[in-house]
């Protein structure tokens, strides 16, 4: 059985150090390079990040590839080889400026082009119905060129493949009979076809219905499915024919996992191939398709759900539109039979949304076309069942599962925090690297003075190293003995970086009102990219940098408080900042962050969490004990109650003097003296249409931050909580997540057996 993980994003970061770690070669390479008079770390810093993702969804795919290889699964990652990944972020005068990420400028040593497996992908055209069957004709062809990147498992001699497709124009492109005239023009037009794999769409949790994006989605799906079927047909296992012709066994040999709805076209495309090309009976084809595909939902935000205009499909993928209509009719007939006369239920459950612009709801298509649907944390999966797909859950409850996300401990502990990995291994051995639940053994050492001292020492070294990095690259000097208070993630209203800003301002005002009082010194670091078209997110960045400008230059404050915006946050920067963090901020409005995975990285690397009961925070609190995290604010039930009651921001503004002072300062231009009206959009949003209820959690947040300060003043007790958190983070390994996918969705068993190395004969 082969696993195909389909994703439009793979946020891989750098590969050199990860490859050395997984091959067990790091020390040998270190030594060899040192003897050549070179510094391995300097070499590692030269490598570009493979930034083929926006945030959590793309990074999850990368962690999953690592775990699938480490667990010995025959798994392939399939995606697009974007020529330009997520933009590089520069901060100019406090504003985000984007520049193109030309990551392939000097070539990519980790990839191998595979022109021998190049495949055609069809667009546009029309559909011909005849007694012989259905034909999709007069299409435009784009070629898909595969590039393979090796994915090594951890010290098990397994190497899987990530195959990314690049778009190539065929040589006769635009040179057909009707284009007699301009040869030069025709050759230049090749770019139109090749633009498909040019650039990653930089939106996180937001749907932008552009035709080029739909082309990207079909491009990866069409190329990948041809590849999957070629491999299925040529496989000799359990098949005496030289070429496999029956598709009966297809779902037993092939599992397709859809990472969000982006590769949802796999469902109609597989139907098209089975019915139109392979002449499989419609009902049989539908059974095969459903048994093969499974869908992971990543968000409940309505603006993030993919709803494509029918008119766009009609033009670009006419046959797929016909198939979707037929599948929807079949689906609605079933619903109508079970719920006679319930017209509203039919409307709610249809794949086609009626209205001024008819749209295809890709999430509904995924649910009807998959045998398993999962959310990515328990609370999120419950919301999926009880609200987003409530009607579908009532129809087929057995379809719905939870698979709480995880992170790979290879990159997110061994690679980024070798000091901590060493002190852990010293106490409990090295088994935890492939079985993170073994960290539980650290609970025996919570009162062990040397261990407490060693853990604190590693953190301090990491903080000093990160301080030096910030000074070298961004010319900012920070106090390494201050609390490193970190919020790094994409900038989005639901993640509530604004709540963090209000705390920073409140802290500043408290210092100003009594400079002689003793304060727990903090360095507040906020980092993340804003989608280029997301105005509010860009304003939030400007607000953070403006607050920093004022606070960092106020002589009354000194080094008691600093606010730093971490420019160009990406995987390689995460590997530096996370091991240095003391406090991890996970403060989304309850019910909005599907899981989060940064939260898990901080927990594993010895930071304490301040957070709401949202996403995987809930399970982190359950594992470590709620008293070992700083949990505050509304729960999902409270948010729902407030929605029913009506959220009135002004009420909090009137009642809480410190909140009012902070808002008035933002509003009056205290943080933007050159442009006093700069933040009126932000203030207006907070006061009048804040979907994420920042003010409702302000009071509880400030109070909770006071408890953080209290504990930080007792380093021994703080470190004991840190150890408890690390010891309880084992559940959040992507090895555990992938084991659950394998057993409960794909029907395969992971294996921990090390295959013999290639230089030894196989048994």
3D structure, described in words:
The protein is an alpha/beta fold and 763 residues long. The protein has 2 domains: 2-406 and 740-745, Rossmann fold (3-Layer(aba) Sandwich); 418-732, 3-Layer(aba) Sandwich (Rossmann fold), CATH 3.40.50.2000. Helices cover 45% and strands 16% of the residues. Strands 1, 4, 7, 8, 11, 12, 13, 14, 18 and 19 form a 10-stranded mixed sheet that branches. It has a 6-stranded parallel sheet with strand order 22-21-20-23-24-25, with helices on both faces. Strands 15-17-16 form a 3-stranded antiparallel sheet. Strand 21 (522-527), helix 21 (535-552) and strand 22 (561-566) form a beta-alpha-beta unit. Helix 9 (266-277) packs across helix 12 (318-338) and helix 26 (649-655) crosses helix 27 (657-668). The two termini are 22 Å apart.
Shape: globular
Q: Overall mean pLDDT score?
A: 96
| CATH class descriptor of the largest domain | Alpha Beta
Number of helices: 31
Q: Give the full name of the CATH homologous superfamily of the largest domain.
A: Glycogen Phosphorylase B
Biggest sheet statistics: 10 strands, mixed
Distance between the termini: 22 Å
- By CATH, the architecture of the largest domain is named 3-Layer(aba) Sandwich
Oligomer: single chain
Percent strand equals 15-25%
Kindly state the percentage of residues in helix: 40-55%
Low-confidence stretches: none
Structural class: alpha/beta
